[in-house]
Design brief:
heterodimer; A: alpha+beta; OB fold (Dihydrolipoamide Acetyltransferase, E2P); 6-stranded antiparallel beta sheet; 3-stranded antiparallel beta sheet; 9 strands; globular; B: alpha+beta; Gyrase A, domain 2; Elongation Factor Tu (Ef-tu), domain 3; 6-stranded mixed beta sheet; 6-stranded antiparallel beta barrel; 9 helices
């Protein structure tokens, strides 16, 4: 699994990147009450706002950690946004993206580097 | 999202207590305040079902002393404070010459020594400076910067407090008292900002942590952060200054005319009377409404409100999920032609229109304690 400074994670399954927000991000948001995931077919560039996650207090953008085409959004989150808190790095995934450039994934932080980064916040 | 200490922020006397409880702290009104302890939803529900304890020491407390206190106060503030009986408090609006709301406040007569006033944290320096400069005769404003303010709110709040001081159970909604409580000189009102029964308790700063911890020893009481305070007040339909009301909003537009009774309207002796009385006679250009958002994401502050044709007619001033109703609710302003209950509108969230309907507020029925007659 790889990580961004904006607290997204990426898990590669072949050339498909499963992406979500980290446990740290979910904990910081608190109770998630609404999630908007992208529709299949949407083309995203790394850094684009491609999903929205809302707590009681506020709406936050989720940024695409890699460029490519969305092949699936996690529709289950519409009816069960609390999954993002319960299992942020598993069932709480946001979308699957067909990776355009594998080098973008390689460039992301590994777990140890991300944990170190979080500890400095 | 960082949780680092911000040295520009002031602290309340309970700052260490919040940190010891593991609260997440945020800046609000110039203070380092707890936004949540265990989680906004759990805290919201606990307050609706049991008793929530809030640190609201960031709010401004003061006394206005002197024989002329009420007369002088009324030169700046709506409502009838000359007619305020000892042991009672009223909601008032600090008005500017344009009839806008500089701040909203509570002022009571806990004893026979003038008024005890509570104003919003972010406005207190401005409010108090204005009053200090303007009060005449023997009226004097004395800031209570050496006091903390606690709120205990919820259906079990009265029982919790009665265990410490039985006389508190005798107070009715909007009663105000000064008494020894927990061995300290306290100002107590039966009021709050959640729609629940409960009390606001002003305590000496050096006693605050002891009293806070004493109250938390009761299993019915949990600490509640500002996150749930905001969702609770939104469900109660209560406006938040700086969001739902500000220096451009008139009390007529905001539906706050209960804070400007007949005697004052007839005298017209308050700032901005020209505009306010004209709006009363002719109707305001816009009115505050409650909205239920029937689909999609919560509509938050700043979201546009459109009519059936898609024409933008107003804006949301507060909004979010209602944990009690399980629906998204909002407050906003629209022309009176679109303010009737049941009017179908749309709110535009991230470019997408979502169906909404004008509904009565409070969204969740209030449970203020009315003394039996």
């Amino acid at each position: 699994m790889k990580f961004t400074k904006d607290h997204e994670w990426v898990r590669l399954e072949g050339d498909i990147a499963v992406v979500g927000i980290t446990k740290h991000a979910a904990d910081q948001l608190g109770d998630v009450v609404f999630v908007e995931t992208p529709e299949a077919g949407k083309s995203v560039n790394r850094g684009d706002s491609f999903a929205v996650v809302e707590s009681v207090k506020a709406a936050s953008d989720v940024y695409a950690p890699v460029s490519g085409e969305v092949v699936e959004g996690n529709d289950a989150l519409a009816g069960g946004p609390e999954t993002v808190n319960a299992d942020p790095e598993g069932d709480g995934w946001f979308a699957k993206i067909k990776v355009a450039d594998p080098a973008e994934v390689e460039a992301l932080m590994d777990r140890a580097t991300y944990d170190q980064y979080v500890s400095t916040l | 999202m960082a949780d680092a200490a911000n040295t520009d922020l002031k602290t309340t006397p309970l700052n260490a207590a919040h940190r010891a409880l593991g609260a997440r702290m945020v800046g609000f009104g110039g203070y380092d305040m707890p936004v949540q302890y265990e989680g906004v939803l759990a805290e919201h529900r606990w307050t609706r079902e049991h008793a929530g304890l809030f640190d609201v020491s960031h709010m401004g407390q003061a006394r206005i002393t002197g024989e002329d206190a009420a007369v002088q106060f009324e030169r700046f503030v709506s409502n009838d404070f000359q007619g305020l009986k000892a042991g009672r408090q009223k909601y008032g609006l600090l008005l500017n010459e344009q009839g806008g709301v500089i701040d909203d406040l509570m002022a009571g007569r806990p004893d026979h020594d003038g008024l005890y006033v509570v104003v919003n944290a972010g406005n207190k320096d401005k409010d108090f400076a204005l009053l200090e400069a303007g009060l005449e005769g023997d009226a004097r404003l004395i800031r209570f910067d050496d006091r903390a303010l606690l709120a205990i709110q919820g259906p079990e709040a009265a029982e919790v407090m009665a265990a410490h001081e039985p006389v508190l159970a005798e107070m009715g909604f909007m009663d105000s008292a000064r008494l020894m409580l927990f061995g300290a000189d306290c100002f107590v009102s039966r009021s709050g900002y959640t729609g629940e029964d409960g009390y606001e308790i002003s305590v000496p700063a050096d006693q605050a942590e002891r009293i806070w911890n004493t109250l938390l020893q009761d299993a019915r009481v949990k600490p509640i952060g500002l996150g749930a305070r905001d969702s609770l007040r939104l469900e109660a339909g209560l406006p938040l200054h700086g969001h739902d009301i500000d220096e451009t909003t008139s009390p007529v537009e905001a539906g706050l005319m209960f804070g400007l009774p007949k005697a004052r309207r007839e005298r017209g002796d308050f700032p901005g009377a020209d505009r306010i009385l004209k709006e009363l006679a002719d109707g305001p250009a816009r009115k505050k409404v409650g909205l239920i958002v029937k689909e999609g994401a919560p509509a938050r502050e700043g979201a546009e409100i459109a009519d059936a044709d898609g024409t933008v007619i107003g804006r949301v001033t507060s909004g979010g999920p209602s944990p009690t109703l399980g629906r998204n609710i909002a407050l906003g302003f629209v022309p009176p032609s679109h303010a009737e209950l049941g009017t179908e509108l749309t709110v535009i969230v991230r470019g997408r229109p979502a169906a909404a309907e004008v509904v009565a507020t409070p969204f969740v029925p209030s449970k203020y304690y009315r003394k039996p007659a």
